[in-house]
Structure formats: structure tokens, C-alpha cells
Prior knowledge:
Layout: H1 6-29, E1 37-39, H2 42-45, E2 73-76, E3 85-88, E4 96-102, E5 105-108, E6 121-128, E7 137-143, E8 154-162, E9 165-170, H3 172-175, E10 183-189, E11 198-203, E12 228-232, E13 238-240, E14 253-259, E15 268-273, E16 280-284, E17 290-292, H4 294-297, E18 301-302, E19 308-311, E20 320-323, H5 331-337, H6 344-352, E21 357-358, E22 362-365, E23 369-370, E24 373-374, E25 378-379, H7 381-384, E26 392-398, E27 407-412, H8 421-430, H9 437-443, E28 449-450, E29 452-456, E30 462-464, E31 474-475, E32 477-483, E33 492-497, E34 503-507, H10 509-512, E35 518-525, E36 537-542, E37 545-550, E38 554-555, E39 559-560, E40 565-570, E41 574-581, E42 587-595, E43 599-603, E44 608-609, E45 622-624, E46 659-662, E47 671-674, E48 683-688, E49 691-695, E50 707-714, E51 723-729, E52 742-747, E53 750-755, E54 763-769, E55 778-783, E56 796-802, E57 805-814, E58 819-825, E59 834-843, E60 845-849, E61 855-857, H11 861-864, E62 867-869, E63 872-876, E64 885-889, E65 905-910, E66 919-927, E67 933-937, H12 941-947, H13 950-954, ...
Amino acid sequence: MNTLLSPILNISARFLSVFLLLTIFSSCSRDKSTTRFELVGSETTGIQFNNVVLEQDSFNIMHYEYMYNGGGVGVGDLDNDGRPDLIFTGNKVLSKIYLNQGDFTFTDITSGFEGLTNSQWLSGVCIADVNADGWNDVYFTSTMSEDSSMRKNQLWINQGLKEGQPWFREMADEYGIADTGYSMHAAFFDYDLDGDLDLYVLNNVINREIPTNYRLKITNGSAVNNDHLYQNLGNGKFKNVTVEAGIVFEGYGLGIAIGDLNKDGYPDVYISNDYIANDLLYINQRNGTFLNQSKDYFSYHSRFSMGNDMADMNNDGNLDIITMDMMPEQYFRKKQTINGNSYFVYINNEKYNYEPQFVRNMLQVNNGFLDTTLLPFSEVAQMAGIYQTEWSWSPLFADFDNDGDKDLFITNGFPKDLTDKDFTNYKAQVYGSLADDAHMISRIPIVKVPNYAYENVGELNFVNQTQNWGMNIPSFSNGASFVDLDQDGDLDYVVNNINDPAFVYRNNTIEKMNDESNFIRIDLKGNSSNLAAVGSKVELWSNGTYQYAEKFLSRGYISSVDPILHFGLGKSTMVDSIKVTWPSGKMTTVARNVKANQLIKLNEGEAVPRNNLSPKKENYLFSRASGIVDFNDSEKDYIDFFQGQSIMPHKFSQISPRMAKGDLTNDGLEDLLIGAANEQPTTLFIRQGRRFVPSKVEGLTGAKTGQESDLAILDIDKDGDNDVLAVSGGYTLENEDEYQHFLYRREGSGFAKEALPLPPFPASVIRVLDFDHDGDSDVFIGCRVQKRGFPLALRSYILINEEGKLKMDDKLSFDIGMVTDAQWSDYDGDGWEDLLIAREWNSLLILKNEKGENLKVITDSKMESKHGLWSSIAVGDFDHDGDDDYIAGNLGLNNRFTISDEYPMRVYSIDLDKNGFIDPVSTAYWKDEKGVMMEYPINYLDELASQSPFFRKAFTSYTKFSYATAKEIFNPDTIAAKRTYYVNTTSSFVLWNDKGNLTWQELPRTAQVAPIRKMLVDDFNGDQIEDVLVAGNDHTYDVSTGYYDASKGLILLGTGSQSFNVMPPSKSGLLLNGQVESLIYFKGDTSYLVSGINRRGLSVFRHTEK
């Protein structure tokens, strides 16, 4: 037994048998069929708290939008008896404090807070030993009142026991933290690592400006809605250091989370902001200041961010972040409350320097580090199944089922649904002139739904267990906390409700599954002025598993959680080791071979100096290379949605930079050619040593009329020097006949431009091969889309090379839909290369090469069985069996749709107005009000109305539209679709080839977080087995869908069998952040990978030979 723990374990052992007996008797009293959670009534608990908020003539939702933001829950041992006590903050009612008497019974000791009344609107609650006297103190935040004296935050200093119960004295003024800034919440933490607890105060006030309107940000700390930071001076006083510490960005703060995200030893601060304000990530600069680096680490945020939480939810040792928003789960509620989004949101984001925001919960997954540098996060809430939980407030990660991973509980509810579109329209018409407050309030819908309980089942996947776990009770819930109230080894759950009694849920996990729900609870005791050891980091190893937690108590929404750290262990009965890094980062404690199912106490006073050995340096495959090529992608934004098809799912114009490599100077070195984009010329970079330098070449480089969507460098006429093929694509040219394609034939020191013998069309790809085996290069050119004709496309072609001249043959033109990628490969091993084609809203396609005479469409049931939004194909012998296998890139699983064979997503080519133009209506499946899956339009009513007046004529209200199915809207007897396309999978796949017989296998889940748009095949790790670099992301989708941007680049390492090992950026050294449009690999003594990132430029990486 570890000597450090022996006194504690001996004490714990005395009570362990008693604990087990109590558990047995308790389990007998509660049947095994009891749900995991059981609501304990006030008749048992004695908790008589109801946060009643009633509207009055002078105080109502029409004037005070934040009146239903609710109250918080505080947890802490107020009387030092070892049991966690509870605090509930009241808005219009008196806040209540309850002492835990054991066995889910509590005593109201609010009277011990002499002078506490309901005169102030209290919001958040923090519990901390502010004066380090060994007794927990309480800090309330206050808001709402226009009178600043009624917004003073309150600090209640614990005076110890008086007649058997603690009593408190309010001393915020004396300590200098009686903040009057419309405070929602606060957090105590040691930001400067001087050993005492400092204070961050989260502020939120709706000023005179409409909080959803775009305007210049206030970033100098002068805004009335700026947060405040107070430094603990160590003498019983705090000092406001807000501006000098860099806390200078305004916001409408509703959530605060604290943790050491970049693992530099100092705590960082994440703030979730409501309305137009972006969320903030204040990275601690380790010198008493913070820097907002949100844009560096997050691609986008929740639009109306509310509560948040920070925890290692996937047990990789890195902190992840979740934020709440207001996205309804039910389809009809979405259509009743969301009016769609105008592209002007994107325009204004850029104009006013706002980061992208979308209406849904966000789960930001920490991707770890490159050496010591924190990588950007990946947002995966849609894939995880937790992005739509109604008007949500408090998310909390904790292991509620003791299986070793962190589950997620979410509170939600708002008594008056101000987001209802029919109400907001009615309000605009009559309020103030024809209707008063009372009338308007009577028209606001009331939506009361249950909170959410999600079980973490691993691999970024959460399962909704709300009903199964006994929590399916409708409520208007706000603050919440987890805590082991009865100290039986599982976490109970406490919730503060509006206009309903508070919820106290007993967790029955121990009683139901005591042999599979082992646990360890850890009580940390710090030194000096931080006796609760806030900021400590705990690592736990047990039976091959690893868990990580940091101790910060302000979490979720305006609440604080159990200060005892809880770890579920599943079936493990022994913890191999526990390592505590204490708040200073200089001292550690290690305990080994600790028995499960007990509370252990660890003291900083018994810690030893931390071993400061440098971390093991990763041997990366790639490292970033600077100074290799200087190119910035200056593609100008073009709004495809304004070209007659406003409800297209995405744009086609955002495609640069497209690149090709080849020797254009006859020096034996490959050069880099970058295609033209609107207002960006074709650019050539000549290889000179390790660098590429720009070079102008007559007839080739310079401005072009449109966008060059693909390039190929080849010797078309076999005269010994290379020529260039360039096809016109994108969407920026006004007329379809402007999409001309050209051969740039080398003549002397320049190039001569020749039009290809093709009709004009927006092209996507060039794929070069000697199709007919006559010794020269033939060319496939794919069509991307028909201008203003989505989802249709014009024909694609193969041009035959006859003595240096490319010619069109009618039998080699193909009506095959929207081509996104193509690859030549002899899939059936007959010696003739066939053509594999990726298509959007369609299946993959094989065109079989009939000995160079023709290409024949292969009718293959396996290929036809999977229709996707295919965007890329890669070819390689990944299983090392001698034939080509294939990887097909698709949208991925991180999207908002339920898609399967039974529930396909469709797009209908319809002319609703009989005006000759296609109205491309997309549909998918959602549950109706009875829970039955039905087909509905994807777009919101306002979006559809912008496409056609048909919808405004058919639907006079959002409510009527919200219940109308696709069949009801588009009656096939009266409205016929010219063509219909569908998608039944969005997964990316590998197709294992066995002599022409293809077997489909989904790529690993980590490769499904975003669209795979570009791939590159090579043996990167030198094991003689081909690997695949996958990249992608897509920023072209409509505003309601938002960016697909969770991919940061992965390498799939071939194993020689039918599997891959996934190598993330933290292992490969390769970070591809943004919309990747090109991948070029220059192989040589020193190999370079060049990645073209849309609207950013080139990222260049040097390959490290293994």
C-alpha cells in the first residue's frame, strides 16, 4: 500500500464495511427496476424552493428579455461536517441555503445569512474559501435592476458555527468585490499563480443598441457589458485589474469556463456570449494578462451562446468545451422559430470582423498539441448528437453512470417563447399601436419540455437517455449542479427551476449496478490561501484506461459543482495510480494501487517537487516549412445564391486555389502552377533550389476572365516540352457560354492559347491518361453543374489525342450528372484503365474501358446502393494484395440530417412558378409531432419564399408551414419534378477491391468529422505500404447549415490489411486548417507538401524521412 495514503485508507477502511452494509440495505429498499435517476420530493428533502417569476404590468417579458434567465445552484460544505450543502439563488424570491443532514434530508439555514433578502435579483452563486480560514464563503452575483446599488454582488463570509449551524456576514464592500456591472456569474481561480483566489465576474446588460445588430466591436474595456477581473491582493482586499489584464472585449456573457487549455500551467478563461457578441477565449499570457485568441482556435461559435462547460469528455487528457444555444429538437419547432438566414450574415461578419456563429450547441474537441503549441479545435456537436436541445442553459459533463467516461446533462426551458416567428410577425404589426403588453404576452407560445440526459458511449457519440434514466419531466430549468449528496459513490443532480419546485434527483447507479459501477472520490486539500486546491489537475490510470480532470468549481450555467472530484471506474476495483499536479504546477502527489469505492484525501502539504523533465519530443512525419513559396489566395467572394437559385445547398464559386505541378522550364525540376480565380491571375512559381519563385510567362500567366477549376501539365504533342490544360469552372461567369476551356501550347519562351473542341460548361476536373494505349495523352473533363440549373449538369467528355491534337468524339460524351472528382484505375485487372467518377447527389460511377474504343457505364448494384455527396476519390493498393482499392470522400457524419436507405435526403428539380427556371427544393426526414419520420423541406419558410412566391401564397403562417410534409406541399399530381436525386449515406468509405469485386467499409469515425474533399496517396512512413492524406472542410454552404470545418488533416496509415491506423495532426505534424482545395506533393531529397487553403493561401510542410 502506498505509504502516503495509508493513514487515510485505514480510516476509510473502518467505514467501508458500514458503507457497504448501508448500500445493501438501501438497494433492498429500492427495486432494481428503478430508473437510474429518481426525483426526490420536497416532503423527503425538506427543500422548499421555487424560483417564482411572475409578470406584472411594469415588469414583463416585453420590456425585460432576461427576466426568465433563472437562478443557479451552489454546492459546498458550509458547516465542515463533510456533507455537501446546497444553495439556490432566487430572482424575485429569497435565495435559500440548505444544510445536508444525510439521507437526502436538508435543513433550511437561510436565516444564518442575516440581511439576505429578496430585494435584489440574484443570479449566480460561487462557493469558495475566500479568506482561507477553513470555512467556505458564498458569493452571489446580481443583475437586472437599473439602480446600481441594487446590483451589488454579495460576498457572504462564513463566521463559523453558531448554535450548531453556520452563520454569515455580507462583506463584499470590505473586500472590494461589490461589483455593480449586471453580473450573471463569477468564478474564483488563481490566474496569476500567487497562491490565492482571484475573481472573474461575468457581466451582461442589453444596452440601448439592439443586441443582434451588427456594429463595430468595443475592444478597449470601456463597454458597459465588459466583464471584470479582480486580483486578490492577499490582504483581504481585491483590486479591479480588468483593463490592465487584457479583459477588454465586450459581450453578453452567460457562461464562464476555466481550465488550462494549452497546458502551460496557467488557467485560461472561456466566455460564452449571447446575441451578436462572439465567444471569447482569454489565453493566460503568464504575466498577469490575457489575450483573446478565440479566432485562432475555433472555426465558429454558437450564435446565442448560453451556459458552457469545459472537461475532458473523451479521456485523451485534453480539455474540451461545450456551449449551449436555442436550436429546437423537433422539426416543427425549428420551422416555427427559425426564419432562415440571409447571406448578409456572412457579409457582415467580414465587414465588422465577427467570427462565424450558427444557431446550435457546439462541442469543441481539443485536438491536442504540436510539440507545446495548442492545435485548433474541431466542432462536432452534430456528429455527437447533442446539437439541438431547445432553449438550453446548463451543460455539465460528469460520469453519471460510473462507466469511466463523462456523460452530459443539459437544462433547458424559457416560459415565453419569444423566438416564435408568427408571434414576432404579429408583434411587428400591432404592438404599441393596436395592442398593449398584456395582449402581446397572451399571444406568446409556451413550450415546456424536459431537460436532456445523454450517455457518453465513446467515439464522439452520445445517446439520449432522458426517458430511460427517469428524467423526462417538462420544466423551465436553468442552473444545475452535480454532487454526491448521499455520498454513496454516484453523482446526484440538482436543478433550479422557474415557477416549479427545484429538482433533486437521486442517482441509483450504485444500487442498480454495484458490481459494474465502481468509483473513486478525491478530496484535495491545498495550502496557504487556496485551501480547496482550486486549479489542481488530476490524472488517473486504471486497468488500461486514463482519465483527466481539473478542479474548477464554476461550471455549467450560473452554478458551482461538487468540490469532491469523482471518477467512475466501471468494473475496475483498483486504481493503478493517481497523480495530482497542485495549482502552482510545481508540486505533485502520486498515489498507487488504490482500492476503488472510497473517498481519499490528498494534501498538498505532503506533495513533492514536480519532475520537470522535458516532455518526449514527437518524431513527426511533417514539419511546417517557411519561406518556400509566397502566395496569398485573394479570391473575391461571389454570392451564387443571388443568381436565381437562392436555395441551392451551397456555392460553386469558392474553389481556389487550384494547383498543378510539372516542369515548365525544362530544367528537370517540377514547378508550381496556380489557377486563376476571380480577380486573381494565373500564377507560376519556378523551382529554384528549395524555394519557388514567381515567374511571368507570356501567354500563360496573368488575369483570366473566370476561374480555372483545374489544371494539367503534360506534353500534349510529344515535342519534349510541357503544355498546359486549363478548364473554366466555378460560378462567377454570367453566361454559360463564357465557360471556355483551353490548351496552352508551348511555343518558344511562351505559350499559345487554343480553345479545346468542347462546348462551354462549368468544368470540375481534368484527368489525363493514354485511354486508348496509342502512346499519347488523352483527357477526361468533367462537368460540375449547369449554371442556374442545379441539380442538373451538362455533359462530360473525353478528348482523344490524335498526333498532338485533341478531338471530341460524340460517343465519348456522357450525361452523368455533377462530377466532383475522377480517377483512372484498372479496377477489374484486364489491363485497361477504367474511369471512376465521384458525383454529388448520386452514386459513384465506373466507366469501363472497352479496350480504348469506348467507355461503358457499369451497372453495379453495390455502387448504385450508396448515393452520397461524393467529393473525392483516392486510388491505392492499401491492403497490399496487388490491385487498386479506393477511398471515396463524402460529406461525413458531422451534419444535421438523419440519412439512410429508409430516410434519404432528396433534391427535386421543380419549376414551381412555370417560369422556365429550376427551383431546387431539398428535403430530408424528421419526426412529426407524433414521433413518425416524415419527409419535409430542409429550408425554412423565408428561405423558400425567397426562391418562389409559391410558398408565401401556400402558407400564411410559420405554424401552418411547420406541419406540412413534402408530399403535402409538392403534390405529385399538380407539381411534377423534372428530376429527383437522393442521398442515402454521408459516410466516407474505403472500397476494398478483390479482382473487381468491391466491398464497402466506412472509414474510422475520426475521419467522418467533415467533408473529405482532397486526398493524396503516398508511402509517408516508409513501410512500403501506401498511406492516404485526407483533407477537406467546406465553407460554401448556406448560412443555416454553416461551415463544415472540423477536419484538421489526417493521415490514414496503411497496415497491409484491410484497415488503417489514424494519425492526427498531433502525431503527424501536419495541420491543414480551413477549406483545402489542393494538395501537391513534391518528392525529392527533401520532399514538400503544398496545401492550397481557400482564401488563406498555401501551407507548406517538409516531409521527415523515416
